[in-house]
Amino acid sequence: MDIPEDVTIEFGPRSFTRFELAANHDYWVSKLRGRRMPSRSDIVPAELTPQLPQILLADVLEDGKDFRYRLLGTRLTRYFPVKATGKTFTEALAPFGVATVAGTIAVYQSIVNERQAALIKGPGEYYHQDAKTFEAVLMPLSDDDVHVAMIFGAFEFELRKSTNHARKFGPRGLTSLDEF
Which CATH code for domain 8-179? Predict the structure, then answer.
């Protein structure tokens, strides 16, 4: 599987445009303590209270052939048409299409292969119809500092401003005022 050409990956990111992503990366770095990767037990949710809504934890399955959403923050769950927690990426991302499933798995595989944090940027349409762009920081977790067991990450989406004012008129999805 190839990483989509319109998605960029910066391994070992040094600067961030979004504070929330920088805060999560700084937290991960603080847990290294001389190791290449922190372990899952180093990540303490109580220390991440402000960041919890955009955080995810994903289990690495079969050396990165697929992944399973272990935890999805509330700001991320709304982007999924089905409950994704506990599902594999193949299952949870299927409604977005084969290209999104394959591209997402390829990005996460790159984190497993490189065993380092990365800043990811790409078009938001992969995950949300109203998103212009997404940015994410994905960071490996390992119990033995060699094999990546989980991915700790955070996402931010830049949403488009809706130009379709008709959607404000209610659940029937009116397309013009003439339908009143």
Answer: 3.30.450.20
